Amino acid sequence: MSRAAAVAAAESYIGDGRFFDELAERVAVRTESQKPDSLPELHRYLDSYMVPAFEGMGFTCRKFENPLGFGPVLLATRHEGDHLPTVLGYGHGDVIRGLEDQWTRGQGPWELARDGERLYGRGTADNKAQHTINMAALRQVIATRGRLGFNAKFIIETGEETGSRGLHEVIAANLDAFSADVFIASDGPRVKPDRPTLTLGARGAVNFDLLVDLREGGHHSGNWGGLIANPAIILAHALASITGPQGAIRIPEWRPAGVDAVTRAALADIEIDAGAGGPTIDRDWGEPGLTSPERVYAWNSFEVLAFRTGNPDRPVNAIPPRAWAHCQLRFVTGIDFDDIIPALKRHLARGGFDQVQVLPPDEKNAGAFIATRTRPDDPWVARVNRSMAETIGAAPAVIPSLGGSICNELFTDLLGLPAIWIPHSYAACSQHAPDEHVLMPCMTSAAQIMTGLYWDLGADTEAVLGEAHR
């Protein structure tokens, strides 16, 4: 019975094919939460795969129906003692749309396929492989020590890709059931494939549409060019007013106060490297005077995700009647969430863009996340950092927030917990795109790290309790 034995068992789980087989079953379930007809598959993922896996580890399971009609939520609980702390975990079983006709690697989205060090399949990176690893790590500690040494709760939701709608209501109505002492989970990418990462929060996200709708139909560009306004030109100028030519945000209310000294120091040794196949960082893009890590982990970014006017597939010589853009703001803590859209409207009004409407996105792109962050000097952060360093033999990267967004405010604000994320993927994993994949070396180190961490959390508890009884 030793930490080393548990970690070695976790490594064998990855290397001997058990991880592949377990993940393959889960990837095959088409849990596309953005498709309304996928609701039965969301239930099947919980009922047929998550519940048996947790019950096999001595957890009791309770499934909550979503009060807003979206995917269900599972809470698995293993209680080892009233005197022990409780660690809350999280994963999401839903995935983005499969995009079956666009895959060029592997065997498509629903069949797990290995190509060298890569495992292809929808949900591998986001998030089925990540929570599969963490569940296996719990299993290895229980099998090796006979117990965890702490109480464990684990949430599997099935609506993260649609904004986790309904999860707040489920937790708020059952606060005692979800209560814990610390939140530790995995999602998102490491800063580099070979550098394990500890993340203390998440940027918030707001999606919205901009629309210029001037008339019913198109009109001949020769007869009417120069006489009637072009909505595409109006919208292009409106978009250009939101940022500078290199993407620096111009709306004052959307700009953070700055990067504080603690964050700057934490990011000083961070190097962002997407790995093979990833895009090259544009060093002159974004806020001037910031490093690349500061721009993505400690600053805001505005993006135009889609732009449509006229008939892009078959252009004609006609001035289009309308132009539309789907946009997004990612933001760090300190930004007034409730003022994001009003500030945009004030900015457009000041610029004379009265014809630009600011609208909520359509249903499939709805949902928003609040920016959150756990203090870097929290004692739980130190414990996790120490355990990861022991396993990997070096200090992990510590960043203030994920570049992306997730429902972290439910854990930090609603449940009042320190929230710590240990991502197992990497930036070039094609998350949300065709050819999504994970790297086997990342999976191996992730299994070692999480098994060592769960072992240490139980061992730390036993040491503290032993000292108290002496």
Structure summary:
With 470 residues, the chain is of the alpha+beta class. It is built from 14 helices and 20 strands.
* Strand numbers in spatial order across the main sheet: 1-2-6-3-7-19
Query: What's the architecture of the largest domain, going by CATH?
Result: 3-Layer(aba) Sandwich
Q: Could you name the ranges where pLDDT drops below 50 across 5 or more consecutive residues?
A: 464-470
User: Which bin fits the share of residues in helices?
Assistant: 25-40%
Number of helices: 14
Query: The CATH topology of the largest domain, please?
Result: Aminopeptidase
pLDDT averaged residue by residue: 94
The end-to-end distance, rounded to whole angstroms, is: 24 Å
The largest sheet is: 6 strands, mixed
The top-level CATH class of the largest domain is: Alpha Beta
Number of domains as seen in the coordinates: 2
The Rg value, from CA coordinates, equals 24 Å
Number of strands: 20
Structural class: alpha+beta
Taken from the alpha-carbon principal axes, the silhouette is globular
